[in-house]
Amino acid sequence: NTASQCGLTPQYAGLEKLYGKYKDKGFVVLGFPCNQFGSQEPGSDADIKQFCTSKFDVSFPMFSKVDVNGDEAAPLYKYLTSKDVQPKGKGSVSWNFEKFLIDREGNLINRFAPPTSPDDPELVKAIEVEIVKK
Q1: How far apart are CA 6 and CA 42, in angstroms?
Q2: In this model, does residue 134 exceed pLDDT 90?
Q3: Residue 107 burial by CB count (10 A; 0-12/13-18/19+): exposed, middle or buried?
Q4: Alpha helices (H) in 1-134, listed in sequence order
Q5: How many beta carbons lie within 10 A of that of residue 53, not counting itself?
Q6: Which of 1, 63, 127, 134 is the most buried (most CB within 10 A)?
């Protein structure tokens, strides 16, 4: 889940770098803007897309704004937050830029807390382990 007016917003650059490095091996970053944390994603879908492409050259898929917690949470996030995977475990999304690693079969493999940078060695290693699997 992402946001354009968050202290973690610069992570867009790192996510784009990961996407560029591994996309030819089947890895995809999916961005789901969310306005549930400090109203840090107030813009329209068009505003968000413009911001992401102009400020961070984002080329990975960005989706429409969703809720990630509560009764109105997107079904994907209801699924993701119900699974107890490491290092973060199950439960509500805590803030913008929480990261979920899903394998080619749709299984949730890892969940990383928002401050985990896209170049964090544990995150990169988890991605590299998954992309070699066919």
Answers
A1: 11
A2: no
A3: exposed
A4: 11-22, 45-56, 75-82, 121-131
A5: 12
A6: 1
Residue whose pair of structure tokens reads 């509500």 in the numeric block: 92
Q: What is the pLDDT of residues 58-112, one digit of tens each?
A: 999 999 999 999 999 999 999 999 999 988 889 999 999 999 999 999 999 999 9
Among the listed residues 1, 3, 6, 31, the single catalytic one is 6
Instruction: Please report the beta strands in 23-107, taking only residues with DSSP state E, as ranges in sequence order.
Output: 99-102
Catalytic status, residue 34: no
Give bridge partners of residue 111 from the DSSP assignment: 87, 100
The stretch 115-133 carries a mean pLDDT of 96
The answer to whether the beta carbons of residues 33 and 62 sit under 8 Å apart is: yes
Calpha distance 88→78 (Å, rounded): 16
Tokens representing residue 39 in the block: 């109203």
> How many other C-beta atoms are found inside a 10 Å radius of the C-beta of residue 51?
19
- What are the distances in angstroms from CA 23 to CA 26, 59, 85, 96? 5, 11, 24, 23
Three-state secondary structure call for residue 79: helix
Query: What pLDDT digit, counting tens, does each position of 31-50 carry?
Result: 999 999 999 999 999 999 99
